[in-house]
Amino acid sequence: MRAWELLDTSAVAGQAKEMKLYRRGDEYSIKTGYSELMNSRMHSSEDVLAVLGCKPFRNKPETHILIGGLGMGFTLAEALKHVHEKATVTIAELVPAVIQWNQTHLAHLAGNPLDDKRVQIYEGDVGKLIRNSAQTFDAILLDVDNGPEGLTREENGALYSPSGLKAAKTALKPRGILGVWSAFPEPRFTKRMKQAGFKTTEVPCRAHGKKGSKHMIWLGVNS
């Protein structure tokens, strides 16, 4: 078996752990410490997040979708398949290197979605963008960490706190959708979303087709 090749390393703002990009043949992996954040062979659940969050608005030209976390571009690429040709999709990414990797090493994996004319790149904290928005987005899709806690960056946990969910609710248009991806189920977060006023559904899915680890998506409608 081929060994992993380290392609690049990047600091994560405010954290001691570095983010590292690896390649093994045609497989890519992004890790922090000993934790794998994403792998190019396993993105089915990210695709599901995009489908669930975007399909309800596919015939609406003025749709504005916010995706928190660029990753390897798969969520963005899938979202673009399910929105109108005149829609806007804002991708918020905190780590500049991840944007750069998606323009170079990783660009081919998801079909160069950053080149799509509907895409706007926001380099910064998605939480800040959400807090500064009011009835702006039809859907907010969050995949900024391994779940509703701050693994990569402690500050990410604020997104999933009661105040973070309240901010997301304010940033969404009426009947807007909040989608949250996680590598694991968390019943307490389901309760938290409902308490924030979202009509909430849990959607279990697999990391790779019908195989792989069990992931969880929360889908909340702004009621």
For CATH, the homologous superfamily is named as Vaccinia Virus protein VP39
Structural class: alpha/beta
**CATH structural architecture:** 3-Layer(aba) Sandwich
Strand content is 35-45%
According to CATH, the fold-level topology is Rossmann fold
The secondary-structure element order is EEEEHEHEHEHEHEHEE
As residue ranges, the low-confidence spans are 150-154
Please count the helical segments.
Answer: 6
Query: What kind of sheet is the major sheet?
Result: 7 strands, mixed
* Total tally of structural domains: 1
What is the helical fraction, as a range of percent? 10-25%
Strands in their spatial order, largest beta sheet = 7-6-5-8-9-11-10
CATH class: Alpha Beta
How confident overall, as mean pLDDT?
91
Euclidean distance between termini CA atoms: 51 Å
Principal-axis shape? globular
